[in-house]
């Protein structure tokens, strides 16, 4: 059987519209650059898991997004990051929760894929990084530090930090979420990865959805990565819910439509991206904007200009 064209979709957060078109253009440029690199790796025949890890690393290295270098600061001024990886072919989930001072949290999740203990929290994750001799890395950017200092001066009135870092002041409650990558490789295998700095300004010890099946899940039929208010994603068990519905016979389009209709009725605030084993590229949002980009094999596109009321969409192969 001849290899099929791979499919890739990535995201960098969700929420309300960006402050200006310059910011929109910069986000689009970053997303397109990264999705093209991931697609090229997949087109070269790399397995889905490897492509997902590459995409997460590239997004973690882009300070504009809330993951890795550029993560938001928590209430005590520290950065604590979480990441998860799920291989749809083996249906194995791995992740780290609230890890500090590493450049790529997704690398720790990757190392844990074959392990007996596959999800580690703060101290365990840091001990793993020490065992692997991963160099210490400070993910704090000047922009994120200034954001935190301004919030401290305002006695932390905002419930969370801005997820897309912008040099202009504005509503720090405008965007929320994570970064995520979903890939269907040339062998027809799926994988999903998600990484985050949290929602920012949160209580110490708070756990996001990103290192849970609620926010990142895959099997042989579908793969999903979520972004938005982590508690809302957990309450809906969104990623796993969509994958289970596809597994039970729904199309990925129907699974997204039903899941996001339920989320709207429950007044949730989030977005999700996904792929089916048939090569269908899917996305959904209850927020105004979903910062996602995709590569179909023939088309490079994104969701940045979609009308605020548009909830779901599917691109068939």
Please provide a written account of the structure.
The protein has eight helices and 14 strands. The chain is an alpha+beta fold. The protein has one domain: Glutamine Phosphoribosylpyrophosphate, subunit 1, domain 1 (4-Layer Sandwich), CATH 3.60.20. Strand 2 and strand 3 form a beta hairpin. The radius of gyration is 18 Å and the shape is globular.
What are the defining features of this structure?
single chain, 317 residues, alpha+beta, Glutamine Phosphoribosylpyrophosphate, subunit 1, domain 1, 9-stranded mixed β-sheet, 8 helices, 30% helix, 24% strand
What is the 3D form? globular
Task: Report strand %.
Answer: 15-25%
CATH topology: Glutamine Phosphoribosylpyrophosphate, subunit 1, domain 1
Number of DSSP E strands: 14
Major sheet characteristics:
9 strands, mixed
Q: What is the overall number of helices?
A: 8
Beginning-to-end CA distance, first to last residue: 18 Å
List the helices and strands and how they pair.
Blueprint: E1 7-15, H1 21-43, H2 48-60, E2 81-87, E3 92-99, H3 105-111, E4 119-120, H4 122-131, H5 142-153, E5 175-176, E6 179-184, E7 190-196, E8 216-218, E9 222-228, H6 230-236, H7 238-247, H8 252-265, E10 270-276, E11 281-285, E12 289-295, E13 300-302, E14 312-315
Parallel strand pairs: 3-4
Antiparallel strand pairs: 1-5, 1-6, 1-12, 2-3, 2-7, 6-7, 8-9, 9-10, 10-11, 11-14, 12-13
């Amino acid at each position: 059987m001849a290899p099929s064209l791979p499919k890739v979709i990535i995201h960098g957060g969700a929420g309300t519209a960006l402050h200006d078109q310059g910011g929109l253009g910069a986000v689009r440029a970053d997303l397109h650059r990264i999705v093209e690199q991931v697609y090229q790796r997949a087109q070269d025949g790399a397995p889905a898991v490897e492509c997902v890890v590459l995409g997460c690393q590239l997004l973690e290295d882009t300070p504009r997004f809330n993951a890795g270098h550029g993560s938001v600061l928590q209430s005590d001024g520290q950065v604590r990051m979480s990441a998860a990886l799920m291989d749809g072919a083996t249906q194995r989930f791995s992740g780290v929760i609230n890890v500090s001072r590493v450049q790529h949290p997704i690398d720790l999740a990757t190392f844990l894929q074959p392990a007996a203990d596959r999800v580690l929290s703060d101290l365990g994750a840091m001990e793993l990084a020490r065992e692997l001799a991963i160099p210490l890395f400070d993910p704090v950017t000047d922009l994120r530090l200034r954001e935190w200092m301004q919030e401290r001066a305002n006695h932390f009135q905002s419930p969370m930090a801005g997820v897309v870092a912008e040099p202009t002041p504005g509503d720090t409650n405008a965007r929320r979420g994570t970064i995520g990558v979903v890939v269907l490789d040339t062998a027809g295998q799926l994988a999903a990865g998600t990484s985050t700095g949290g929602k920012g300004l949160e209580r110490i010890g708070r756990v996001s959805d990103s290192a849970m099946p609620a926010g990142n899940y895959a099997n042989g039929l579908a793969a999903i990565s979520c972004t938005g208010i982590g508690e809302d994603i957990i309450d809906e068990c969104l990623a796993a819910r969509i994958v289970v519905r596809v597994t039970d016979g729904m199309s990925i389009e129907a699974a997204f439509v039903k899941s996001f209709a339920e989320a709207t009725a429950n007044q949730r605030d989030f977005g999700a991206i996904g792929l089916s084993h048939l090569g269908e590229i899917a996305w959904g949002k209850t927020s105004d904007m979903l910062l996602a980009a995709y590569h179909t094999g023939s088309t490079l596109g994104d969701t940045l200009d979609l009308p605020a009321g548009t909830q779901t969409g599917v691109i068939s192969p």
